[in-house]
Write a structure and sequence with these properties.
This protein folds into two domains: 88 residues, Rossmann fold; 122 residues, P-loop containing nucleotide triphosphate hydrolases (Rossmann fold). By secondary structure, the protein is α/β, with parallel strands linked by helices. It starts with a helix and ends with a helix. The protein has ten helices and six strands, in the order αββαβαβααββααααα. The chain is 45% helix and 18% strand. α4 packs across α5. A hairpin with a 6-residue loop joins β5 and β6.
């Protein structure tokens, strides 16, 4: 997230506000104005900070982590009203991220949340850090999901289980699954077969992709 904020700060004039716990990277004003708020120092909670942030009419809001229902609800409302909202959740894949957001709410609220999410979500990027085969550190395996009419319909209709297949077949649109990312790193000789099987989402699919890649 810090790299994304830095890129925006260096390339366009925007009013950016971040809410973090803790602040890990200090941004200097460049083309954008960046105001950073830290939980415990500048505010008591993510939800309190977000309510305050919206009064300053930001273009971009970065939330270090969406930890509870209230902060997720405010983030969705902010996104629906034209703000670019960037945030993180501790999930392994894009479909799990979407399910986590929806499952944070009670049954009677989920229809509304699905509608909000389908209308406002632009992309989900999931990342795992995989040991390099030479033992000299780790490399990121990255899953990309972007909003398409089909994926928006799946979110709206409660069919998150179909999203992974949509990502699998969406490579021409710039999407890739976590398993496809792992196979790409494996085919480049950067990670081991054991690492692919340890970090993959669908073991049978990963083994099939590895076999097809080399035979």
């Amino acid at each position: 997230l810090a790299a994304m904020i830095d890129m925006i700060n260096n390339t366009r004039a925007s009013n950016i506000v971040t809410v973090e716990d803790p602040i890990e990277f200090l941004h200097r004003h460049n083309k954008s104005t960046v105001r950073q708020r830290e939980i415990g120092t500048d505010t008591h909670s993510f939800a309190t900070a977000l309510r305050h942030v919206l009064r300053h009419d930001p273009d971009i809001i970065m939330i270090g982590e969406m930890r509870d229902q209230e902060s997720i609800a405010i983030a969705l409302t902010a996104a629906e009203t034209g703000h670019l909202v960037l945030s993180t959740l501790h999930t392994q894949t894009a479909p799990l991220t979407i399910s986590r957001i929806i499952d944070s709410f009670s049954d009677d609220m989920r229809l509304q949340i699905r509608q909000q999410l389908a209308n406002s979500l632009k992309a989900v990027i999931s990342q795992q850090l995989i040991p390099l085969i030479d033992g000299r550190g780790r490399i990121a395996a990255i899953e990309y999901m972007i909003d398409t009419p089909a994926i928006r319909s799946m979110i709206r209709d409660g069919k998150e289980h179909q999203i992974y297949s949509a990502i699998q077949t969406g490579q021409s649109l710039g999407m890739q699954t976590m398993d496809q990312a792992l196979i790409k790193l494996y085919s480049q000789g950067k990670i081991s077969r054991d690492s692919v099987l340890e970090y993959c989402i669908d073991r049978a699919e990963a083994e099939r992709l590895m076999h097809n890649n080399f035979f």
